[in-house]
Each structure stands twice: as C-alpha cells, then as structure tokens.
C-alpha cells in the first residue's frame, strides 16, 4: 500500500487547447526557464556595465540554436526511436516526430553546445565578450534547466530506478515507458525533481560565492559546468529510459564527464591568463557609452524668478519681463 509518494499528473495536464492552438505544458516550462534566464542575465550584465537590453540580442540568436541543439542531441542519442525500418525517411511523419520538441526529448548538453555557438555569434555582433556573457548567464542557465525539468513531470518521463523511498514517483502501469515485469504501483526515483533541486542549489551557490569572490573571465561558467556535470552524472546513472551506451555508460554520463573537464580547464586557464580584475564586459573599442544627457537651449541668464508664479523659474524673452 502506498502511504507517501509523488503522484504523476493526469495525462490531460500534458497539454490544453485555446481555440485552434494546442499548448503543451512541457513547452511552457521551457519558456518559463528562458524568461527567468533572460531577466536575471539582463540584470547581471547591466550591473556590470552592459547596455540595458543587450541580452535580447543574445537571446535572439542563442535560444533558437540552443533548442535546435537540444533536440538534435536527443534524436541522435535515441536514433532508433525516430529513424529506422519502422520510420522511413520518405514519411513526413518521421521528420515531424523528429522535430516535435513539445513532446519532450531535449538534451541539455545539446542545448549548451547550441547556446554557446549562438552566444559566441552574438558576442561578435554586440561587442560583449563571450566569457563576460557566459559568466552572467551561468546562474540563469541553472534556473532555466531546473524549470525545464518540470516538463518531464508533466509528460511522466525520464524517471529513475524503482525505489521504496517516500518521495518515489507514481507512474501509471499503462505508461509507454513503464518497465515490463514490474508490478503496478511500483514507485520510481523522481530524477526530474533531483535535478531541479540540484540546479537551483547550484544557481544560488554561484550567486552567494559572487558576493565574496569575483567569478569573472569564465570562472562562473567553469563552476556551472562542474556543478551541473557532477549532478547529471549521478542522476543519469539511475535513469532507466533507453539511450545510447558507450563502454558501459550512458552517453549523457560521458557528456557530464566532459562538462566537468571543460569546467576545470576553463577555471585553470582563466586563473593563469586573466589573474586581474575584469574592467568591463565589452571588448576594447566596442564599449557601450550611454547617451549624453539632453542639454537645454536655455542658459541660466534666460531664467528669472517670479515669486507669484506657480513655477519658480520661467524663461524670459529678450528685453521683456517674464510672464506666466
């Protein structure tokens, strides 16, 4: 008898309709994450001297490439689910399923790669240094990834091994991913929740550390990669959804190890190459200069005091007394 557990949402929660449009909860979770990341990153960049709103220029390029990268990584690591004898290339449905990002199946490692390419392109466009943007976006990325994991709950997917822990996830036995041979009512590790908590904790950790240490020149980026890689390598190890395996390990575990190594390398390189303080987020010669304040065409001599006026100072006409 189940006395405590996390219920899966009804299948009807996965999507809803507004007129002729179908809104997917998974997509809303991703959108919420993007909004949080953009708002937080914009604030951080502006505080460091970036032009207000410059983050939008990055989002225009990085977000689409991140989504493309996320979907591409997932499809390539689950190639049998989308292409093969049962999914002929000549069938338009095959390609439709491959790009149906709203049905779930987006790899964060692909999003990191695609988003990084987009951020680099935007950095050339805006003049903001790539590493400066990467440091600013690091905690926002973790918040976004955590919120995106809620989409897995709405889709009842990507859960872990069976467990008897009181926070085990209930999965309907008629779910397409329910493991064969297990009894109905079996609980599973809610790996989506583990990763959500881990990501939120990492974002808060970066924000707290930055109050004491300047995580610039890629150091916040490095910490993000290490933190996410460690957590993902653990959570991925207990997931049971089918995926590609190399040398006995799931492909995303190898991706997590790579993220950790890259994060360490970035921090070591940064400490050796840039031991000083970051003086600004723009490359030399591309600095943003706030617009100069508007200067009045009047001078101080053009104003006289009128004690009876509601406004203390009124521009005077040449050789004539001031009038209200």
From TrEMBL:
GO terms for biological process: lipoprotein biosynthetic process. Its EC number is 2.5.1.145. Pathway: Protein modification; lipoprotein biosynthesis (diacylglyceryl transfer). A 1,2-diacyl-sn-glycero-3-phospho-(1'-sn-glycerol) binds at residue 149. InterPro entries: Lgt. The chain crosses the membrane at residues 16-41, 53-73, 99-121, 128-148, 192-209, 221-240, 252-269. GO terms for molecular function: phosphatidylglycerol-prolipoprotein diacylglyceryl transferase activity. It is found in: Cell membrane. It comes from the Bacteria. GO terms for cellular component: plasma membrane. Keywords: Cell membrane, Lipoprotein, Membrane, Transferase, Transmembrane, Transmembrane helix. Pfam families: LGT. The keyword Lipoprotein applies. Its main location: membrane. It is a multi-pass membrane protein. Catalyzes the transfer of the diacylglyceryl group from phosphatidylglycerol to the sulfhydryl group of the N-terminal cysteine of a prolipoprotein, the first step in the formation of mature lipoproteins. Belongs to the Lgt family. This is Phosphatidylglycerol--prolipoprotein diacylglyceryl transferase.
């Amino acid at each position: 008898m189940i006395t405590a557990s996390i219920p899966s949402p009804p299948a009807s929660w996965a999507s809803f309709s507004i007129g002729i449009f179908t809104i997917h909860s998974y997509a809303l979770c991703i959108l919420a994450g993007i909004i949080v990341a953009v708002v937080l990153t914009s604030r951080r960049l502006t505080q460091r001297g970036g032009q207000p709103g410059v983050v939008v220029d990055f989002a225009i390029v990085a977000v689409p490439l991140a989504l493309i990268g996320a979907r591409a990584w997932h499809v390539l690591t689950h190639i049998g689910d989308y292409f093969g004898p049962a999914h002929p290339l000549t069938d338009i449905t095959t390609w439709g399923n491959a790009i149906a990002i709203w049905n779930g199946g987006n790899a964060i490692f692909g999003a990191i790669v695609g988003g990084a390419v987009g951020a680099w392109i935007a950095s050339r466009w805006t003049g903001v240094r790539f590493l400066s943007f990467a440091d600013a976006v690091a905690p926002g990325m973790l918040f976004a990834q955590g919120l995106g994991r809620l989409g897995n709950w709405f889709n009842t997917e990507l859960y872990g091994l069976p467990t008897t822990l009181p926070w085990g996830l209930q999965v309907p036995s008629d779910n397409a991913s329910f493991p064969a041979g297990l009894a109905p009512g079996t609980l599973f590790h809610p790996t989506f929740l583990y990763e959500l908590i881990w990501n939120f904790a990492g974002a808060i950790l970066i924000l707290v550390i930055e109050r004491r240490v300047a995580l610039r020149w890629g150091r916040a980026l490095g910490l993000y990669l290490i933190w996410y890689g460690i957590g993902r390598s653990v959570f991925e190890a207990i997931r049971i959804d089918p995926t590609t395996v190399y040398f006995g390990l799931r492909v995303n575990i190898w991706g997590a190890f790579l993220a950790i190594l890259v994060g360490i390398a970035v921090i070591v390189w940064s400490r050796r190459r840039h031991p000083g303080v970051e003086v600004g987020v723009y490359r030399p010669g591309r600095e943003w200069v706030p617009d100069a304040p508007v200067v009045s065409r009047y001078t101080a001599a053009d104003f006289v005091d009128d004690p009876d006026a509601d406004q203390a100072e009124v521009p005077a006409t040449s050789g004539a007394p001031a009038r209200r």
